[in-house]
Design goal:
The structure is a homodimer of 372-residue chains. Chain A is an alpha/beta fold. Chain A folds into 2 domains: 7-283, Spore Coat Polysaccharide Biosynthesis Protein SpsA, Chain A; 291-371, no CATH class. Chain A has helices spanning 46-58, 72-78, 95-110, 128-142, 190-199, 213-223, 225-238, 243-250, 259-269, 288-295, 356-365, and strands at 11-17, 63-68, 87-90, 115-118, 124-125, 147-152, 163-169, 179-185, 202-212, 273-278, 282-283, 303-307, 310-314, 318-322, 327-331, 336-340, 344-349. At the A-B interface, strand 13, strand 15, strand 16, strand 17 and helix 11 of A face strand 13, strand 15, strand 16, strand 17 and helix 11 of B.
C-alpha cells in the first residue's frame, strides 16, 4: 500500500473551520463564528488551540485549514504559521463532504499515499498528550486501509451526540485498543442514550476521523459519484493557474451532504471503519451551558467570566461572557448566562441554553440579520 | 391671619429634586438622578410629570424647583417653563430641611402669607384628579394654621415607608376628611406593619406636606434655631445682588437634618399637624421591583420594557430598561431585572432589587465612582 515504513510520515491534518454555532449567539456570528473565539479562557481562540494541538503530529507545514472566504482575513491574522498553500477557501458553505473531500483530494495530488486526519476547529480537548497518543494509534490503524474514528468514552447519557457501536477488536500492531465499528447511530433519546452508556459498547462520535485520502475518496465515489468527480476536478487544477476558474465554476454545483452520510456510514456498512477510543476530555462546546460547565470544573456555584468585563457579582453563578469593557453587575442569579457584545445582549439560564438557536431563527425571520 | 379670602390664592408648590436613588443604579446616577428619568413610560421624566401635575394647582409661575447645582442644565433643559427666578440651586446636598426651608423662606419674603406644598420630584401618582382634590383640601386645612401631610391608604403592609397615625377628625370647611395627626412612626417591621394596616388608623407617609411657610419656619426656629437663622439670612439676601455671597458663605455651615425630624415630628407633638388621606395610587419608585410592578399593573408574567431597545423575549417576565440601542434577547427568565446603559449593565431579579444599594456601596468602596 505504501512505500514509507512509518504511517505517521504519511499523516496530514485537516481542520474544517466552518459552522456559525447559532447556539452561541450573540458571541458567535456569521462574521465571527465560534472557532474564532476564545471560549475556554486559554487566551487563544478555539482554532488556534486546535492548530497547536495538531502541530506535534504533523508539523505546522502539514496542517490544512478549510474555511469560508469570509473568514480568510480573520483566520490568517490568527495563524502566524499558516500559508496560502495550506488554506482552502470555500466560496460558499457546502457542508462537510465538500470541505473535507476537497482537502483530502488536494493533499492526495500532492502526496498520493497521504493519511488525513480531520479535526473540527471548534472543539475543546483537555488532555493533549492522551489525544496525541490516540491519533497516533488511529493513524496506524488507518494505514491498514481503514477509516478510523475516534470515539469518546461517554461521561453521561448525552442526547446531544451521535454514538458509535463498537464491534470486534482488531489486531493492529501499536494500536491495541482499536476495534471494528459495528455501526453509527444518530443522536438518541434519553432512554436509548442510557442503554447505550450502560452497555459499555457505545462511544460518543466526536466527528474526528483518520483515513487514507484514497480510501475516503473511493468510498465517496461509490456513494456520491457526481460529487466525487466534481471534487477531483477541482483538486486536479487546485495547484495550477486554472484552479480559481475551476473552483468558481464547479463549487456552486456541489451537493450539500454531511460526510457522516456520504462516507462514514457506507464505509461502516462495508466493514471499512475502525474506532480507537479516546481517553481524554472532549467538549464540542455546543452551547453556553457547555462553556459554563467547561469553565466551572469542580467550582459549582461560581460565576465564570470570559472577557475583559469589570464584573461585580453578588451571589451569582453561571457564566458571563463579555466583548465590551462595560461594568457588569449581577445580583442573586443562579446558573445565569449573560453574553454582552457591542450590539447585542443575551440573558438566559443554563437550563434554556439550547433555546438560543430558536431565538436566532426568530431574529432571522424578523429581519434582524444585521446582528446574526 | 390672611387678607386673601381663598387659601388656594396663597398656594405655591415646591419640588425638592434631590437624591440619587442608589437602588436604581445604573439608571440613576449622581450625574443623572432618578427624577431626570422616564421610569413610567409616560414619555416624560418624573420631574416633568411632577411639574405637570402641580401646574393646575399653582400655575406654572408659582412652582419652585430645588435641586443641586450639578443638575441645573439638565433641569432647565427639561422644563420649558422654569425660570431662574423659580429655581433654587443647592451648592451641596444638605438634606431636606435646608432645601425645603430655604425655598419656603424665599417664598415668604416674596409673599408673606404663602402656603407652600412640598412634593418630591421622583414620585409617581396615578390618578391626578384625586391628587389635586386632596391637595386643595389640604390647603384649606393649612390655612387654619396647620402643617398638613397627605397620607396614603396602605394597599399592603409595606415596611418601606413611615406611617402616620390618625387622630381625631378636624372640623374644617371644605376638608371633610382632615384629621389630627396623633404621631408619625418610622418604617416598621412586617409584624407592626400588619397591625398598622389592620387597625385602619394608619396611613403611609408619602412625604408630601402643605403648610403656611411662617408656621413651618417658626417650628424650625424652635427645633433648630441656628439652622433657622442661617436659612433666614440666605433668604433675606436671595433676591438681591448679595444673594450668591450669602449662600456661598452660609450654605456649607448648614446642619444636615431631615425635615421629618426638624419640623414634622416636633409639630405633631405640639398638635400642629393634620392629615388629609389621599385616595390615589402613589409610588415612590424606590427600586426596580417597584418600577416593574408599576409597569405590569394587571399584566403579571409579562416583560415590561422601558427605553428604545430592540427586544426579543422568550418566556420572560420582569422589567427591561435600556438606554442603548442594542438588541436585547431574554430567554426563560422569571421576574428578571435588566438595566442596560452605555457603560454599565445590571442583571438581577425582583426579589433582589433592594440589594442594588449595597452593590453601589461596594462600587464606591472599590473605586468605581466613575460609573456612580
Amino acid at each position: 500500500m505504501t512505500l514509507k515504513t512509518e504511517p505517521m510520515d504519511r499523516f496530514h491534518s485537516i481542520i474544517p473551520a466552518g459552522g456559525i454555532g447559532s447556539r452561541l449567539w450573540p458571541l458567535s456570528r456569521a462574521a465571527a463564528p465560534k472557532f474564532l473565539h476564545d471560549l475556554t479562557g486559554s487566551g487563544q481562540t478555539l482554532l488556534q488551540d486546535t492548530w497547536d494541538r495538531l502541530t506535534p503530529l504533523s508539523g505546522k507545514d502539514r496542517i490544512l485549514v478549510v474555511t469560508g472566504v469570509a473568514h480568510e482575513q480573520a483566520v490568517m491574522s490568527q495563524m502566524d504559521n499558516l500559508t496560502a498553500h495550506n488554506l482552502v477557501l470555500e466560496p460558499s458553505p457546502k457542508d462537510s463532504t465538500a470541505a473535507i473531500a476537497l482537502a483530502a483530494a488536494i493533499l492526495m495530488r500532492r502526496e498520493p499515499d497521504v493519511i488525513i486526519g480531520s479535526f473540527a476547529a471548534d472543539h475543546v480537548i483537555v488532555e493533549t498528550a492522551a489525544f496525541l497518543a490516540t491519533v497516533r494509534e488511529a493513524v496506524r490503524v488507518a494505514a491498514t486501509d481503514k477509516i478510523v474514528v475516534i470515539g469518546i468514552e461517554p461521561s453521561e447519557p448525552s442526547v446531544g451526540f451521535g454514538y458509535i457501536k463498537q464491534g470486534d477488536p482488531l489486531q493492529v500492531e501499536g494500536a491495541p485498543s482499536a476495534r471494528q465499528v459495528a455501526k453509527f447511530v444518530e443522536k438518541p433519546n434519553i432512554a436509548k442514550a442510557r442503554r447505550y452508556v450502560e452497555s459499555g459498547d457505545y462511544l460518543w462520535n466526536a466527528g474526528m476521523f483518520i483515513a487514507p485520502a484514497k480510501l475516503l475518496l473511493d468510498t465517496l465515489a461509490k456513494s456520491e459519484p457526481e460529487l466525487h468527480a466534481a471534487i477531483l476536478e477541482m483538486a486536479e487544477h487546485w495547484d495550477t493557474p486554472a484552479g480559481p476558474e475551476a473552483v468558481n465554476r464547479i463549487w456552486p454545483t456541489l451537493k450539500k451532504v454531511a460526510i457522516d452520510y456520504s462516507v462514514a456510514e457506507p464505509a461502516a456498512a462495508a466493514g471499512l471503519v475502525a474506532v480507537v477510543p479516546g481517553h481524554f476530555t472532549w467538549h464540542d462546546v455546543g452551547d453556553f451551558a457547555a462553556i459554563a460547565e467547561l469553565q466551572s470544573q469542580g467550582r459549582s456555584g461560581n460565576l465564570a467570566v470570559l472577557g475583559n468585563a469589570k464584573v461585580l457579582a453578588d451571589s451569582s453563578s453561571g457564566i458571563l461572557i463579555s466583548e465590551t469593557d462595560r461594568l457588569i453587575a449581577l445580583i442573586g442569579l443562579e446558573d445565569i448566562i449573560v453574553v454582552d457584545t457591542p450590539d447585542a445582549l443575551l440573558v438566559t439560564t443554563k437550563e434554556h441554553a439550547q433555546r438560543v438557536k430558536s431565538l436566532v431563527d426568530a431574529l432571522r425571520a424578523t429581519g434582524h440579520s444585521d446582528v446574526l
